[in-house]
Automatic annotation (TrEMBL):
InterPro entries: A/G_AdeGlyc_MutY (IPR005760), DNA_glycosylase (IPR011257), HhH-GPD_domain (IPR003265), HhH_base_excis_C (IPR023170), MIG/MutY (IPR044298), MutY_C (IPR029119), NUDIX_hydrolase-like_dom_sf (IPR015797). Residues 35-186 form the HhH-GPD domain. Belongs to the Nth/MutY family. GO terms for molecular function: 4 iron, 4 sulfur cluster binding; 8-oxo-7,8-dihydroguanine DNA N-glycosylase activity; adenine/guanine mispair binding; metal ion binding; oxidized purine DNA binding; purine-specific mismatch base pair DNA N-glycosylase activity. It catalyses: Hydrolyzes free adenine bases from 7,8-dihydro-8-oxoguanine:adenine mismatched double-stranded DNA, leaving an apurinic site. Its EC number is 3.2.2.31. Keywords: 4Fe-4S, DNA damage, DNA repair, Glycosidase, Hydrolase, Iron, Iron-sulfur, Metal-binding. GO terms for biological process: base-excision repair; mismatch repair. Adenine glycosylase active on G-A mispairs. MutY also corrects error-prone DNA synthesis past GO lesions which are due to the oxidatively damaged form of guanine: 7,8-dihydro-8-oxoguanine (8-oxo-dGTP). This is Adenine DNA glycosylase.
Length: 343
């Protein structure tokens, strides 16, 4: 248990002052953990503060309109997190009297809550003796103990979970879990960690065997799909805009976008412009970016162009620019609007 004691001691001296560490309220801890999935603390903190200010209780979040939740989430990505967040808030408010489950197994039943998030809430709010295992934990344990199991394999999770659970000092679940995650975030970082100042530099397997840059092992490579998206800003004679809402089970579900022409292969700009002319029966087309905008997602690489046309008639169900600004958009479209229509 020397490892655990040293880790907690390091944490108490080096931990960042973060608002979700000053509470045991499961709502705030759940909110922080969902926001911080796939997100760095520096990016997630402003969103956490906005959410807790706008929705101070799980009931206020449950009562919100989904578009309001998505608008507040705009820019964080992985929007299924926001939709699950809203659905879970409704479930807790309507079916559980506004109270979160108080144990790991029941927490795991909530939509959008997996093993890691359930363990975090259970240990931080209720001191349940269960260890968290995330990317930081994989890295710290793999390097310190010299574990070369492929962390992309599901069976590896069990090995790391059992080790972490055995290392966790009973009654100190919150301190240990936060300590090991913070150590991975600040000290045992993925690339070029400062091993000379590390408290474990005399006992770390990876450092002693010159394997710091080789551990943890992750062999599975993500296949990236290329998609070619051409957004057409359609304005009518009154200067109003046409929007579409993405409803399919695809990226950006329930977010808004300008009318889209998508192709599976890269077409020439000339061909795309000709397609727009034919579809909308117009001659004048404005091209905003001759060079495509590249927007990378976890499994997809988006190649994006923006165009604008103005029709000579009024469009049914069009909206004003002020109304447009209230809608939740993918960040790449939000940035386009900001750069081209707000300046």
């Amino acid at each position: 248990m020397e490892f655990s004691k040293a880790l907690i001691s390091w944490y108490l001296q080096n931990k960042r002052d973060l608002p979700w560490r000053n509470t045991k309220n499961p709502y705030y801890i759940w909110l922080s953990e969902i926001i911080l999935q796939q997100t760095r603390v520096a990016q997630g903190l402003p969103y956490y503060l906005k959410f807790t200010e706008t929705f101070p209780t799980v009931q206020t979040l449950a009562n919100a309109d989904e578009e309001e939740v998505l608008k507040l989430w705009q820019g964080l990505g992985y929007y299924s997190r926001a939709r699950n967040l809203h659905q879970t808030a409704k479930n807790i408010s309507q079916n559980k009297n506004g109270k979160f489950p108080d144990n790991y197994l029941e927490l795991k039943k909530l939509k959008g809550v997996g093993d890691y998030t359930a363990a975090a809430i259970a240990s931080f709010s209720y001191q349940e003796n269960i260890a968290v295992v995330d990317g930081n934990v994989y890295r710290v344990l793999a390097r310190y103990f010299g574990l070369d199991h492929d962390i992309s394999q599901p069976k590896t999770k069990k090995i790391f979970q059992e080790l972490a659970d055995n290392l966790l000092p009973k009654g100190k679940a919150s301190e240990f879990n936060q300590a090991i995650m913070e150590f991975g975030a600040l000290q045992c970082i993925p690339k070029n960690p400062d091993c000379e100042t590390c408290i474990f530099n005399n006992s770390c397997f990876a450092l002693q065997h010159k394997k710091v840059d080789q551990l943890p092992v992750k062999l599975k490579k993500i296949k990236v799909t290329n998609r070619y998206l051409n957004f057409v800003v359609v304005k009518d004679i009154s200067g109003n805009f046409t929007l579409e809402k993405r409803s399919e089970n695809d990226i950006w579900k329930n977010l808004h976008q300008f009318p889209l022409i998508e192709s599976s292969t890269k077409d020439s700009l000339e061909k795309t412009i000709q397609n727009i002319k034919i579809k909308y029966k117009v001659e004048n087309i404005k091209l905003f970016n001759e060079k495509e905008i590249i927007h990378k997602l976890s499994h997809q690489k988006l190649h994006i162009h923006f165009f604008e046309i103005t029709l000579e008639t009024n469009i049914e169900n069009s909206i004003t620019f002020s109304e447009l600004l209230t809608k939740p958009f993918p960040i790449v479209i939000h940035n386009f609007i900001e750069a081209n229509y707000l300046n």
